[in-house]
Amino acid sequence: MKVLIACEYSGRVRDAFIALGHDAMSCDLLPTDVPGPHYTGDVFDILDQGWDLMIAHPPCTYLCNSGVRWLYEKEGRWEQMQEGAKFFKDLLFADIPRVAVENPVMHGHARDLIGGYKASQTIQPWQFGHTENKRTGLWLRGLDYLTPTHDMRPEMATMTYAEKNKIHYATPGPDRWKLRSMTYQGIANAMAQQWGGTLND
To answer: Looking at the chain, which terminus has fewer C-beta neighbours within 10 angstroms, N or C?
Structure first.
């Protein structure tokens, strides 16, 4: 299967598919963090290269519910939100048979701009082997819902709120946004196994 992982610099989802034998490539304006097939540039430069599946992680800064207050407090945010929503929608409806677009919970203004489409499902890291909370939406075309693989709630029962939400308490610094945006390994593995499988399946 030919798989494009859009807006990914970490290589995490890309490499999960490669490990199962797929022809996968990541794409981002940033270079890849780890060696592997990667296109540094605009994803729309390569959308017409016969992909069977695209998993996209477009920027959420202007679309997510947690940042909606800044629309009213920072100049230019409405225009940036409109650009972000168009980018999101163009990825969701790209001419590729199977598409998943990942983003945090989206605020109503952005959802209106993408045509009112709600996430097909929401997932949490603790459903895939991680003792953390981070609710994430998946907008799906031509794909089944992602099935949880390892429920970690029993292990989280005695953890503090900060421990369970440590991604939100990450130390401020130049790489904080990278840590907050990276796909959890358990979720990356589930995407590869459930949406790709091995070449012998």
So the answer is: C
Q: Summarize pLDDT for 40-92 with one digit per residue, the tens.
A: 999 999 999 999 999 999 876 545 555 555 555 565 665 777 787 888 899 99
**Predicted model pTM:** 0.85
Q: How wide is the angle at C-alpha 84 spanned by C-alphas 185 and 72, nearest 5°? A: 110
- The gap from C-alpha 51 to its chain's centroid, in whole angstroms, comes to 18
Q: Is residue 200 part of a domain?
A: no
**How many domains does the chain divide into?**
1
Range of the domain at 87: 2-195
Nearest to 147 by CA among 78, 200, 193: 193
CATH code assigned at 66: 3.40.50.150
